Amino acid sequence: MCAERCTYGSGRRSASALLTPLATWQGFVYVAFVIDTFARRIVGWRASRTAHAGFVLDALEEALHERRPVRGGGLVHHSDRGVQYVAIKYTERLAEAGVEPSVGSVGDSYDNALAETINGLYKAEVIWRRGPWRNFEAVEFATLEWVDWFNHRRLLEPIGNIPPAEAEARYYAQRKEPAMAP
């Protein structure tokens, strides 16, 4: 899927979404991410004490506000088949925004490989390294710090060993430069 849809130049853009549960001393915390697949930038995220559809919808709203997709612009939103992502409210909001949903097959993490990769980095760089976690607030604050670091300072090999925000800025800077005459 990403080979045909993950470049801005092709006119098709995509986002991947993922929900991950985390254990704390006071119970579980759930963190949802929405990731721009071109630059690997996290464009929306939320943490919640319960795995309800509303909090993943909040992460989607943040991503929509950040990206302001053009209706009919070819934006594809890929996720797994988690109940939050196939909930009526969630799919209706995607339709309202003109975003095409794409849902992976059951039990196949390869269908959402980018989101799974970033989730693995999140767990390795924050959750497992700094845990065990006391409570929701500790996880939420650590996630806030990590998302900022990830987007602006984390070097990623697939995008040229630069941070996601820089990859995105370079792309838009190249689009604004006038073409050179031969």
UniProtKB/TrEMBL annotation:
GO terms, biological process: DNA integration
Domain of life according to the entry: Bacteria
SUPFAM superfamilies: Ribonuclease H-like (SSF53098)
Keyword Isomerase among UniProt keywords: no
GO MF assignments: nucleic acid binding
Pfam family, one: rve
TM segment ranges: 18-39
InterPro entries: Integrase_cat-core (IPR001584), RNaseH-like_sf (IPR012337), RNaseH_sf (IPR036397), Transpos_IS3 (IPR048020), Transposase_IS3/IS150/IS904 (IPR050900)
Domain Integrase catalytic stretches: 1-172
Keywords: Membrane, Transmembrane, Transmembrane helix
Database matches in PANTHER family: TRANSPOSASE INSF FOR INSERTION SEQUENCE IS3B-RELATED, TRANSPOSASE INSO FOR INSERTION SEQUENCE ELEMENT IS911B-RELATED
NCBIfam families listed in its UniProt record: transpos_IS3
The protein, known as: Transposase
